[in-house]
Amino acid sequence: MQPSTIRGTQRAARPKLTRVPLATAIYLALGAMPLAYAQSPVPAEDATSQDGADAAAQPEADAAAQPDAAAAAQDTAAEPQAQQRTLGSVTVTAQKREENLQEVPINIQVLGGDRLTELNVTDFVSAVQFLPSVSVSSFGPGFGQVYMRGVTNGGDGNHSTSPPSVGIYLDEQPITTIQGALDVHFYDIERVEVLAGPQGTLFGASSQSGTIRIITNKPDPGGFSAAYGLEGNYMDEGDAGYVAEGYANLPIGESAAIRLVAWNKRDGGYIDNVFGERTFPTSGITINNADQAEDDYNDVTTTGARVALGIELGDNWTITPAVMSQRQETDGGFAYDTTLGDLEVTHFYPDTAEDRWTQAALTVEGKIGNFDLVYAFANLNRDVESETDYNDYTFWYDTLYGYGAYLVDDNGDLIAGSQYVQGRDVYRKRSHELRLSSPADERFRYTVGLFYQTSFHDIQQRYKIDDLASDLSVTGWPDTIWLTKQERDDDDKAIFADASYDFSEAWTLSAGIRFFESDNALKGFFGYSDGYSPTGSGEASCIDETDFNGAPCLSFDKETNDDDHIGRVNLQYRPTDNAMLYATWSEGYRPGGINRRGTLPPYLPDFLTNYELGWKTSWADNTVVFNGAVFQADWDDFQFSILGPNGLTELRNANQARIRGVEADVSWAVTYNFTLTGAMAYYDAELTENYCGETEDDGTPVTDCGPEELQAPSGQQLPITPEFKGNLIGRYNFDMGSLQSYVQGALVYEAERTSDLRTLERDILGDLPSYTTFDASFGFGKDNWTVDLFLNNAFDERGQVSRFSQCREEVCGEQVYVVPIRPRMFGVRWTQTF
Predict the structure, then answer these.
(1) Nearest-angstrom CA–CA distance, 477 and 485
(2) 145 within domain boundaries
(3) Residue 200: per-residue pLDDT
(4) Residues 6+ apart with CB under 8 A from 417
(5) pLDDT of 624 above 80
(6) CB count, 10 Å around CB of 499?
(7) pLDDT by residue (tens digit) across 59-78?
């Protein structure tokens, strides 16, 4: 049954292609991946997909369009051999052209719109479990750090550190932001493409280890369509939730249409903020959280809409302006305290966040002669206001070092010193891309383009202690012991080109290059008042006494720039119509920048060089598709952020690392009604030189140090990403009387992971244990309606996403927090189309 809804710094020399052969790193494995493949009663070369997304996801959908196939489907049990079973084609735009997935020499994972609905994927985090090459370290909605292929140091995520290593796009427009990926609600989505490996030549900075593209359904002037969905759900260990969503595609004449999409969603809480007391050693003052204690306190409400207008200007030009906006309100934190019971914390101040963002975009597509021209513009405004309990910081520094002796009120009396943080982050990102592509059917074809992006981030972090003495508070900011008030600017300019040449029907050589220039500037205030730290950071280190956006002064003003180029070379061989082999050498990068602690030197760009062998194959008359890749990636001088003195994030170029891996996916149309899909990824990711935690004056990492200074030895495993991750999904469609029905099971396994790059810190925090989850669903429908019943995390596994402490592990490590996956959840969904 088909569901009714669509839900200027010089870099060190880097190794060349011939330097490190990959043959010695090949692993043999067989796995599976939730590609958007499914059964189709027509041959794969003739199959099409809804709105260009995944191929006909269920045989009933094709049967509805083809009466002969529908009639045959009713006799499946009696005449199984009469049913033709194949896997439909999948269209992607990974190389900025529309192409069949099996013809693209990149390891790509695809979740089509139908598959997103089938798997009950409504946000990015729930999609990641079905994407073996992707990992996420999350602290809550909108604060997830995304990693691919084991390229992770576990230290990113602060609002003024390095950019992500994975680029995220909404249609043609980049939406990558520092501190956390946008928590886009997945509804009316055509497909999600996950492009593994460096994609920097076409997608630029932050596509160092891969690119994730969220492709929305576009306005269609061909006819009216609409749908809505209503869902109710409940977690065993938590609260109830709901989802209400819908879309309408409204033609305007023969050459234009408007598409309206809206959603409202509530995720029930499952963390209990339990009553507790805390006595601060120096003052002897005891506090409690009676006014904050609440069961299931981390609920989330998400409301959003998308409006897109499609206008066809003649046969060759289309204009698509679009606006997508979302507001997400979060109450409570998403981690539990390991010193308390399961799914419990004792926090004394509010943990809340309000994340508002609007993405306005314009895409113009047309032809100049036989050439395709695309212009893509985007403007992203994101505003995040948050409150966070930071009580552990003062308590543990007081317990270990007696810091409470310095915290008094205006009368000179000791106070508890309990801290909390009020933050406000304002993001502004604007991008332009212009590209020209030659005809795709030519023997020699190419794409050339220009890219320009500006990003602005207004950072305000206010660390507060109630009743703090005026002379201990930052001037103009009552009760504020520490203030971060900074402005960050990131600019990126690039020229890129990508070309392919067919030597014969079997052999194709492709190459790409990107010349880029990036600039990073950071200025502002950070630190204490003169009264609290007369010789430290903050007011004691002012370089300009002029008021800076309300801060007492300007304590630093720095900028840095980089210009360089990266490349890609790919050789494809097609021995048969059903097989393709490819070899790739490619590079990715992240720009350098200025440290939040402005007294530190800038951090340098880091680069990833990838060597890859891959295959795309179909077997048994296209009833089995088996794709995969083996690779080695060398990560040079990678950027690594740590908590330094006063809990302030510092970013340094850490060291060298190597990631070797194998990825594979298979889709199998077992029978006309039964499909199996799944995926696996295995990674061996480790340091190749010692990490000593220090750099030379020019930013070069120090690798020769004694046991006292050594923080991570050569050979140490990189954190967060498991050595193995895989899934297996089975779906069986059948008729239940006059109802079209299905039953589905999805199994996901994630192996053990380490929590930190550094030996001492990972020993304190502990490892993230392996876990296995199973999701089950059953549905039935008729005509234009369906009912789905689902049970997610059926065995209530307490899988762990991340582990952390509120301040430096050596200080706060006695109190470790765990971010778990969601507990077992049961839900019912009704959908209807028109």
Answers:
(1) 11
(2) yes
(3) 84
(4) 280, 283, 394, 398, 403, 404, 407, 465
(5) yes
(6) 15
(7) 333 333 333 433 333 343 43
pLDDT digits (tens, 9 = 90+) for 208-227: 999 999 999 999 999 999 99
Amino acid 586: pLDDT: 95
Establish how many alpha carbons lie within 13 A of residue 612's alpha carbon, considering only the half-sphere containing its beta carbon: 32
Q: Tokens 């002969």 belong to which residue?
A: 68
Q: Is 14 a member of any domain?
A: no
Supply the DSSP symbol for 7: -
CA dist 413 and 781 (Å) reads 70
Q: How far is CA 551 from CA 48, 480, 520, 528, in A?
A: 59, 11, 22, 11
Phi, psi of 765 (to 5 degrees): -75, -35
Q: How far is CA 591 from CA 611, 626, 658, in A?
A: 22, 36, 20
Site of tokens 């079905």: 130
pLDDT tens for 314-342 read 889 999 999 999 999 999 999 999 999 89
Q: In Å, what is the CA distance from 756 to each residue of 14, 609, 695?
A: 26, 23, 20
Task: Work out how many domains the chain is built from and give that number.
Answer: 1
DSSP result, 634-666: EEEEEEEEEE-GGG-EEEEEEEEEEEEEEEEEE
- 479 touches 468 (CB < 8 A): yes
Establish if 6 belongs to a structural domain.
Answer: no
Structural domain of residue 415, as residue ranges? 27-599+610-833
In Å, what is the CA distance from 412 to each residue of 398, 407, 408, 471? 18, 9, 5, 11
Domain harbouring 498, CATH code: 2.40.170.20
Distance CA 500, CA 54 (A): 26
- Over the stretch 234-257, which tens digit does the pLDDT of each residue have? 998 899 999 999 999 999 988 999
Please tell me the distance from the alpha carbon of residue 153 to that of residue 676, in angstroms, as a whole number: 34
Q: How many CB atoms lie within 10 A of CB 409?
A: 15
Residue 11 lies in a domain: no
